[in-house]
Amino acid sequence: MKILVCISHVPDTTSKINFTNGDAEFDTNGVQYVINPNDEFGLTRGLWFQEQQGATVTVVNVGGADTEPTLRKALAIGANEAIRVNANPADGFFVAKQLAEVIKNGGYDVVIAGKESLDYNGGMVPGMIAGILGYNFVNSCIGITIDGSNVTAVREIDGGKETVNTSLPIIIGTQKGIVEEKDLRIPNMRGIMTARTKALTILEPVDVAVNSKVVKFEKPAPKSAVKLVSADNLDELINLLHNEAKVI
Amino acid sequence: MSILIYAESAEGKFKKVALELASYAKKVAESLGTTVTAVTVNAANVSELSKYGVDKVLKVSNDKLAGFNAKAYADVIKQAAQKEAAKVILLSSTTDSIYMAPLVAVALEAGYASNVVGLPVSTSPFQVKRTAFSNKAFNITEINTDVKILALAKNTYGIFENASSLTEEDFNPTIDDADFGVKVASVEKSSGKVSIADADIVVSGGRGLKGPENWGMLEELASVLGAATACSKPVSDLGWRPHAEHVGQTGKPVATNLYIAIGISGAIQHIAGINSSKVKVVINSDPEAPFFKVADYGVVGDAFEIVPQLTAKLKAFKEQHS
What we know:
- Chain A has helices at residues 37-53, 68-76, 92-106, 125-133, 189-197, 234-244; strands spanning 2-6, 9-11, 19-20, 25-26, 33-35, 56-62, 81-85, 110-114, 136-147, 150-157, 160-167, 170-174, 200-203, 212-218, 227-229.
- Chain A is of the alpha/beta class.
- In chain A, the strands form three sheets. Chain A has a nine-stranded mixed sheet with strand order 11-10-9-12-8-1-6-7-13, with helices on both faces.
- Chain B folds into two domains: 3-180, HUPs (Rossmann fold); 201-321, Rossmann fold.
- In chain B, helix 2 (70-84) packs across helix 3 (95-107).
- At the A-B interface, helix 3, helix 4, strand 9, strand 10 and strand 11 of A face helix 2, helix 3, strand 7, strand 9 and strand 10 of B.
C-alpha cells in the first residue's frame, strides 16, 4: 500500500499574524513554521498503516526551499521519503493540480491531506484532487481502516458522525480525531539523523492557470474593552445580554 | 445568467443557513442586476424561500439522494448551474456543503473562495473578503474565472426578509451510479443535544472546571439557554469531553450569537476558533486571563458559585419572558 500525505507548511498555532508591504504580504518575521496540524493528524494515521500494514508513506509539499525543514520533520517522525514540488502555492486549485500530477505518476492508493490549512483555510485541496482524479473522497475524516481494497471510514457530520464504505484508491481530508493529540509524535535524535539521509525529491511544477489570488490582507478591527459585571450582580449580566447585546 | 444557490434542507425543512444564504444571494443579485435561483434536494415545501428573495426554485426529488453524497450532490449543482448558465454559485459553510464545494469547482472549472464574509468587495474584478489564518485575519481574494463559487461563512450576514414571487420547477438531473463510490453504512447523531454547528448559543468549559464530573452545571446552563456545550483543547486532550466538543483552531470553529467561556483562560488558538462569535462572555477567577481582552462581558469569580446562580436567574428570566 502506497500512501501519500500532503503537507502544508504553516505558521505555528501560537504565531501572531502580521502583514507587510502595504498589507499585501504575510510578515514571516519571527514566525516558526510547523506541519499543518490537520495534515499532521493524517500523517500520524499514515504512519500507523506503515507500521501495522506495511504501507510506505511519502510526504509531499508544494512550496519553495524554505519549506524543506517541515518536510524533514515529517521524515524524522517516520515518513519514508519526501517530495517537494518547487513552486509558490498560488491558490488551492494550483496546488491540487500539482499534487494530482504527483499522485498520477506515483500510483498512490491512499492520499491523505488535512481538511484545511491553518493559514489560508481554503478547505479545497483534498476535494479538488478528488475532483481532478475521480478518486473516492471522504472529508472531515476521523477514522479509517483498510482491508485489501475495502475501506471503512468515519466522517464527522454536523451533530454526529457517519460511517461509510468505499474502496481504494481514496483521498481523505483529515482532522483531529483520525488520531488523538497524544498519538502525535515528537522527532527524536535518531529520527532527525535518519531524516537527513532519506530521499527528498524536488519536482518542477506543471503549468496551471491560477484561478484566484489574494490581493490584500486585513487584521480584525480592535475590540472595545470588556464590560465587567460583579459576581454579586448577575442580574446585570442578564440585563446586558437581553437589552444591549440582544442575544437572549 | 442568474445566481445559483444550493438551499440545504434537513428532513425536508430548510436550514437556517439556507435562509441566510438566500438573503445574501438576493443582495448580490441586486448588485449584479440579476435574479436568484435556488436548487433544493428533497425539500418538502420550497415556498418559504420566496420570503428571502429567491425568484426561482429548481426542485430535485430523488430517492437516490435521500442521504448526502458529495459527488452526487456536486453533480446536481453542476447540472443546475449549467441549466441556468449561472456565473455565481453560492453555498453555505456546513460540513456537507464545504465537502462538496471543491468538487463543483473542478467540474465547472470555477474559482472558489470559502469562508466568505460580507458582500463582494468589488464585482469587477470580482473580489471577496474571507477569513484566513484561522480567524486571526482576513484576506481579499480575487477570482478570475468565468464561473465563481463562494461559500458564505455561517452567521456572518444575517437573515433578511425580502419577498419575491417564486417560480417552482421540477428538475431531474442525471444521477450517475458511478457517483456512489462512497456509501453511507450508518449515521450516529448525538440525540437530544444541540450541535455546535446549529447552535445560536454555545456554553464552553475549560480546565478551570477541574474535572469531567463538574460538567453537570455547565450542561444545566446550556439546557436553560437551548445552547450547545463545547470545551477547550486541554479538556478534550485530557479526555474529560469528547473531541467533537473541542472548539478552537484545531477543533471546531464557532460562529455563534453568544459564546460563554467558563474557566477558559483564552489561549490564542482557542480565541482564533471562537472569535467569529458575535457576543463573548467570560467567567473566570483570574482577572488576568487573556480571554478578558477579547470578551464583551466578563465576570471575575468562582465558576462553581457563579454558574449555578446564573442558571437559576436565567431560568427565572426565561419563564418571565416566554
